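Example record

One chain of 154 residues, shown exactly as stored in the release files.
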Amino acid sequence: MSLWAIFVFLLVAALQMLDRVLDLAKKRGSISGEQLKLRQEITRLLKEASALSTPSTFAQAAKLKRLAGAKEKELAKIQELNIKGKQSLYDKYGRLLLVTKVLIYGALILWFWRSPVTTVPQHLVQPFGRMFSWRGVDAATGRVVGLESSHGYF
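Predicted structure tokens for this chain:
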């Protein structure tokens, strides 16, 4: 096995892994410390409001629920700003990775254009042998193989 085959495999695998990691990071996102504090404060306020269940503390419970609702709106606004900023960053990295993959794959195609990918016995491609055969070098004999056949099938 050629070292080039291993190199190409590792290069393509690395590019695919980068693509997967970028997709996972895009889907998962991250939570900042400010968002975490807001979430904790919202849950604390809602617990306090649910603990106040008597008619005399109804006004205080309603006030805590309104405060929790305001905090939730603030949290939603912060998350929306974070999503927009990170979305554009992930889009830039995604485009850069796509362009890099296209350039590398194009370079690999041009580099290995004359090298056969595989050889298939002639009896497996009959009667369509001419459509599938390109000029190349036979790996077993080292001779140039073309469209002509010694079996008379073409």
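Notes: Residues 147-154 have pLDDT under 50 and may be disordered.
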